[in-house]
Amino acid sequence: MSATQFSTVHRSYVMSLYRRMLKNELDWVVRRDIWRGRAQMIRAEFERNRDVHEPRALAQIFKKAEAQLAEKLHPDPYIPPSMPGGTKWERNIPPTIAPIYDHLSAGHH
After folding, report:
1. pTM of the full structure
2. What 3-state DSSP class applies to 76?
3. What span, in angstroms and rounded, lies between the C-alpha atoms of 36 and 19?
4. CA 91 to CA 82: how far, in whole Å?
5. CA gap 58, 10 in Å, rounded
6. What is d(CA 109, CA 105) in angstroms, rounded to the nearest whole number?
7. Quick one: which of 71, 23, 64 has its CA closest to 45?
8. b (16+ CB within 10 A) / e for 55-72
9. Residues with Cβ < 8 Å from 77, sequence gap 6 or more?
């Protein structure tokens, strides 16, 4: 595996972990002004580990972060209303534009 492949995979994993942590905080704290402070603390933690390049140290950091995230996962995460599982998902679906009953072909066999 080349260095660029590792860094691409590594970067996407770190971004995914960061997003999941931010999303989980938003599940717990809906008010954005309070959430912003928590988001800044999460960002500061990521920045603190930015220059760690040793694979074993990174593995330990990731393991600890995943454990913390799993421990703090919200039991009933927020789902936007119009997303699958949301309160408005598939509510008032527009009617189909296809004919319900084809009057022309029904009478002429």
Report:
1. 0.70
2. coil
3. 14
4. 9
5. 10
6. 7
7. 64
8. eeeeeebeeebeeeeeee
9. 23, 24, 27
Q: Supply 91's token pair.
A: 């509510």
Q: What tokens were used for 34?
A: 């309070």
Chain Cα centroid distance, residue 81: 15
Query: CA–CA separation, 59 vs 18, rounded Å?
Result: 15
- Give the DSSP H/E element, type plus range, for residue 47: helix 32-48
- The type of residue at 81 is P
CB proximity list for 23: less than 8 A, separation 6 or greater:
77
pLDDT digits (tens, 9 = 90+) for 31-89: 999 999 999 999 999 999 988 888 899 999 999 999 999 999 999 888 888 888 877 77
State the pLDDT at residue 79.
83
Domain residue ranges in the chain? 8-72
**For residues 90 and 82, what is the distance between their CA atoms, to the nearest angstrom?**
8
